[in-house]
Specification:
The chain has helices spanning 17-33, 35-55, 61-71, 81-84, 92-98, 101-110, 119-123, 145-160, 171-180, 188-208. It is mainly alpha-helical.
């Protein structure tokens, strides 16, 4: 079960004015150099925002989750564009460069006082529940909760949208894939509540059709 899941509170604004200004500058840079990455981060943030509303989380946790989602791939600004755009499997050296982006993102964020607290959370978005992720091999609850939530939202968006190296999957197949990796790559509690959110929206749309 995700902590504070039953606490009732209105989801607060995403960020302070100073944070929003800093985020806007970073996202402008990402949009200019890697528009697909920027679009993915924004979609991931929308998923994270829907999830915190579904759970009725309050401030400051919901704020941290959504900010982490909005910025989780900002470190890809420092990844060579030809790696981001490669149509095919990455080589071992290319994969190594790609896997540095959470650390690069932390460095970029910690250079801005308004975003200092988000740096460690972005760094941990590619850790895994079973401890085999990167960059630090954190395991289970040692991975910050915002990072665990963003990891699920990130993966779902990646699966349901076409990318240069893969076709999109259906929503049902993507949820099945999350479930298959629940307990290894992903926090089982996060997968359960995320699936509940998506499936409840399916049911609502079916009734409205």
């Amino acid at each position: 079960m995700i902590p504070n899941a039953t606490r009732r509170a209105k989801v607060p604004p995403l960020a302070s004015d100073a944070q929003e200004d800093a985020i806007a500058r970073l996202l402008d840079l990402v949009t200019e150099s890697a528009p697909e990455v920027a679009a993915h981060m924004e979609r991931t943030a929308r998923l994270a925002s829907a999830l915190v509303q579904h759970l009725e989380l309050g401030d400051p946790l919901s704020r941290l989750i959504v900010l982490t989602a909005r910025l989780h791939d900002v470190g890809k600004l420092r990844v060579p564009p030809w790696i981001l755009e490669k149509n095919g499997p990455l080589t071992e050296s290319e994969l190594g460069l790609m896997q540095e982006h959470p650390v690069m993102g932390q460095d970029m964020l910690e250079r801005r006082s308004e975003l200092l607290a988000i740096g460690p959370l972005v760094r941990a978005t590619h850790e895994r529940w079973d401890g085999t992720g990167y960059p630090d091999g954190l395991r289970g609850p040692a991975v910050p909760l915002p990072s665990r939530i963003v990891a699920v939202c990130d993966a779902f968006d990646a699966m349901t949208k076409p990318r240069v190296y893969s076709d999109s999957m259906s929503i049902r197949a993507s949820l099945d894939e999350l479930e298959a990796w629940s307990g290894s790559q992903f926090d089982p509690g996060v997968v359960a509540v995320f699936s509940d959110l998506v499936e409840s929206r399916f049911d609502r749309r079916a009734k409205e059709a």
